[in-house]
User: Which sequence fits this backbone?
């Protein structure tokens, strides 16, 4: 047998019909071997200088005449697919050895990064503890992206309490002043616009994609901390469920991804493999036991916000079903409620007195279905193949003022069908003041204000859920409004003066009544005090405390106290209207 010649094997033309990819004696294809198919190039990795591997020969790929490596051909080598874009930029995606290459599955389109902008905002927050003034202004930066209609989307918390908002495009040194069109507090989305035509030159709008599936690849683009230029992180969708939106204090559909989302990423788009936007980065989970858990606002929530604005000219919010419910997983509970073996649903515990549902539904009704979709005993409904989700998702798909059909089972085994009108939630202790300054009223050094989540956070810090008085927390978590204009009025503090000696330690205590009349809200309290002709001002407070002041002395002393503490007015502007 003749001896084998040493040296490299001569190259052959890979495009010829008879050409094969080099045999297993050459473990890698040369760098200059390129297969051109349409606008997709199959580029092999550079050659290796290592010795040929021993053992079983590697299977090879043969390309017959007019073959297309995109259409389901099996590759036995690690390859890169490069997609040529109009601007000459491409992106490569590795395919695993022995997998089937399909253009729809493997080829990834470069996201429209030029549509991603940096958002600069100057904030001036109200001082809820001293409601007649504001805090020192501060600035922040975040991300946003351009959508159709010459508009820009970002997060609501990125422009909360804004004084000025400016945008800067990628690769530009100019900042453009933006106008805030709408802020969706619950869904944490804000809509911006720029009047300067120069801003829109060379910028293409982002296209929205469908809700991704689990394990779908996502790419988050934005301007996080750690640098000034654009940043790209990638990961996969690891969970789809109803999430708690921290900024809005509500629960809506959300995506959990394992791509890094850091401060400054807020408002940036999350793209899929096709280059379409599938969500907005908005929050992440920071804990010592977890890492790389980020959350994205999905397209159904985004489109709800945009269509709500386009339909009403303003953001009206996400409606809720104004009930609290209980799971019916216990068989004895279902039996006692008169449910048949094939019936499923949830038991209504309480109903918001101010909600439209209070006119039709009753406590202990069993909610069987919502808009024709059966509700399971654990409160879930079918979502997609092999997935279930909380039935509040169905409610959140509606708009404020829409109607929905509900089926309930009453105690006497009677099935009733109702058509209810949905409305946004009105909490006794609101989660936000929606950009309005806090209300206050001062008399004889007593500072009265209303309780809200921002107020509790201002008084007790971020751990207000543990530090605030128990009775205020109970009203925050469990109590409903009895009327649409009901508020929790408290004595925030007492500005020390001779007239209020002995009352200095009263802090954050609810006012229940004034001169024997219940205090409904802060405006009614201010009106009763201002129009009081009795000899004394008597305040009934929580914990059976009583405050008594002479009417004439109290009113005359108020002016001097305001001057001493440099307070411009005894009441906020909204109480004068």
Assistant:
């Amino acid at each position: 047998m003749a001896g084998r010649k040493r040296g490299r094997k001569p190259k052959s033309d890979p495009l010829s019909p008879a050409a094969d990819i080099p045999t297993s004696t050459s473990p890698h294809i040369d760098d200059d071997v390129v297969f051109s198919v349409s606008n997709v190039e199959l580029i092999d990795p550079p050659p290796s200088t290592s010795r040929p591997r021993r053992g079983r020969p590697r299977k090879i790929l043969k390309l017959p005449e007019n073959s297309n490596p995109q259409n389901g051909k099996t590759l036995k080598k690690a390859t890169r697919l490069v997609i040529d874009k109009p601007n000459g930029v491409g992106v490569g995606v590795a395919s695993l050895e022995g997998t089937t290459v399909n253009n729809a599955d493997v080829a990834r389109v470069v996201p429209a990064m030029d549509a991603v902008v940096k958002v600069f905002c100057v904030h001036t927050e109200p001082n809820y503890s001293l409601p007649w003034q504001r805090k020192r202004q501060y600035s922040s930066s975040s991300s946003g992206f351009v959508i159709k209609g010459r508009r820009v989307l970002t997060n609501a918390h990125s422009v909360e309490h804004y004084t000025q908002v400016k945008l800067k495009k990628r690769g530009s040194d100019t900042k453009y002043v933006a106008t805030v069109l709408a802020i969706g507090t619950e869904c944490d989305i804000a809509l911006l616009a720029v009047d300067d035509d120069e801003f829109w030159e060379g910028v293409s709008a982002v296209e929205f994609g469908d809700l991704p599936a689990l394990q779908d690849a996502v790419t988050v683009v934005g301007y996080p901390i750690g640098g000034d230029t654009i940043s790209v992180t990638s990961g996969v969708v690891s969970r789809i469920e109803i999430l708690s939106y921290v900024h809005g204090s509500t629960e809506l559909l959300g995506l959990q991804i394992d791509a890094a989302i850091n401060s400054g990423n807020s408002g940036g788009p999350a793209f899929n493999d096709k280059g379409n936007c599938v969500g907005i980065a908005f929050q992440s989970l920071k804990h010592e036991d977890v890492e790389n858990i980020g959350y994205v606002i999905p397209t159904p929530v985004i489109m709800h916000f945009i269509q709500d604005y386009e339909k009403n000219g303003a953001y009206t919010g996400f409606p809720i079903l104004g009930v609290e419910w209980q799971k019916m997983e216990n068989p004895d509970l279902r039996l006692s409620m008169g449910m048949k073996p094939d019936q499923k649903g949830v038991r209504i515990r309480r109903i918001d007195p101010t909600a439209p549902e209070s006119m039709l539904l009753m406590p202990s009704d069993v909610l069987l279905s919502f808009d024709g979709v059966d509700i399971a005993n654990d409160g879930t409904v079918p979502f997609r193949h092999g997935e279930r989700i909380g039935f509040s998702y169905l409610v959140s798909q509606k708009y404020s003022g829409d109607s929905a059909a509900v089926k309930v089972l009453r105690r006497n085994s009677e099935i009733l069908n109702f058509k209810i009108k949905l409305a946004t939630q009105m909490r006794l202790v609101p989660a936000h003041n929606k950009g309005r300054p806090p209300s206050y009223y001062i008399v004889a050094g007593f500072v009265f204000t209303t309780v809200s989540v921002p107020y509790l956070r201002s008084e007790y810090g971020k751990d207000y859920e543990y530090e605030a008085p128990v009775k205020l927390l109970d009203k925050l978590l469990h109590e409903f409004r009895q009327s649409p204009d009901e508020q929790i009025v408290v004595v925030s503090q007492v500005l020390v003066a001779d007239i209020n000696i002995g009352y200095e330690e009263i802090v954050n205590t609810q006012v229940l009544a004034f001169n024997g009349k219940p205090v409904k809200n802060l405006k009614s309290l201010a009106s009763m005090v201002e129009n009081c002709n009795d000899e004394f001002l008597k305040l009934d407070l929580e914990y059976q405390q009583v405050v008594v002041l002479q009417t004439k002395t109290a009113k005359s002393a108020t002016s001097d106290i305001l001057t001493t503490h440099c307070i411009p007015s005894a009441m906020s502007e909204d109480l004068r209207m």
